[in-house]
Amino acid sequence: MESKNRLQENGHKSIDWGSLISIQSILYSILGVFSAMIALEGFMLPNHFLDGGVTGISILVEEILQVPFTYLLVVFNLPFLYLGYRRIGKTFAFRALLSILMLTVLMHFIEIPAVTEDKVLIAVFGGFLIGLGIGLVIKAGGVLDGIEIMALYTTRKSAFSTAEIIIAFNALIFLSAAFVFDIETAMYSFLVYFTAARTTDYVVDGFEEFTALTIISGECEEVKSLIVNEFGKAITVYKGERGYLPNSFKVKHDCDIVMTIVTRLEIHRIKEATLQIDPNAFFFVQRIKEVKGGIGKHTSKNL
């Protein structure tokens, strides 16, 4: 899961008590912990299904050594929380510790019976609920699984990205699950992990998936008017040049490069409307993680 920037944004060099006790953060943490608890007790643990990271390691070690899962979850997360304290900040580490302790305490005192024995339902809904829980806790400024902290720390000392480190680490966990349990359990556990990862991304990044749409057109004035006046979007204009084709390198023209922030629901309509003005218009789209300020997050009035 791509959480490097999320963790950095949520960390502080010293504990921010005002942020720590905010109603929104507390609510996200409580909902996230309850969602993860239902996933673990109602779906995953009774059927030996794993998620990735520290959660998966704890389930494996519980099966091998018969040590309670809740104890292992705290112990295995402590080194990562220390790295988070050193690398990200006190506020982040404190939030993460509180969330993990809350989860273990609730699991110790609240017993949830297995919801179903259907393996596909367990993998899908177990993954969805634990992904929802992890995502909500990240939005609150903490984590329920310390593996992402390790990936953030190791990227400073290696050429691998955060995602590559997490995938490699989890691959070892699922291979181990194939030996400790069986191949089928390992395969279903991968489905749990995939569902959880996608759910976490949606919770943290949002469902709208804002993108930067850039348009280069010879009819730039009409294109600008279309986007602003017809679709109600704010734009940014860069001054540039177009041309430089292989067979006519010396031919060039000044142009305005138009960039606007849109959702995936708006991309097709804006592109179609722009092509009505200029069939030769050039587009490129870039996914962005977050949008703040301005009117970029306003949806189109034509949708």
UniProtKB/TrEMBL annotation:
Residue ranges spanning the membrane: these are 21-44, 64-85, 92-114, 120-138, 159-181
Q: Name one Pfam family in it.
A: DUF2179
Domain DUF2179 stretches = 235-293
Q: Which InterPro entries match?
A: DUF2179 (IPR019264), N-reg_PII/ATP_PRibTrfase_C (IPR015867), UPF0750_membrane (IPR051461), YitT (IPR003740)
Q: Where is it mostly found?
A: membrane
Q: Where in the cell is it found?
A: Cell membrane
Per the record, its GO cellular-component terms are: plasma membrane
Q: Which UniProt keywords apply?
A: Cell membrane, Membrane, Transmembrane, Transmembrane helix
Q: How does it sit in the membrane?
A: Multi-pass membrane protein
Q: What is this protein called?
A: Uncharacterized membrane-anchored protein YitT, contains DUF161 and DUF2179 domains
**Naturally occurring in which organism (per UniProt):** Salinimicrobium catena
Q: What is the lineage of its organism?
A: Bacteria, Pseudomonadati, Bacteroidota, Flavobacteriia, Flavobacteriales
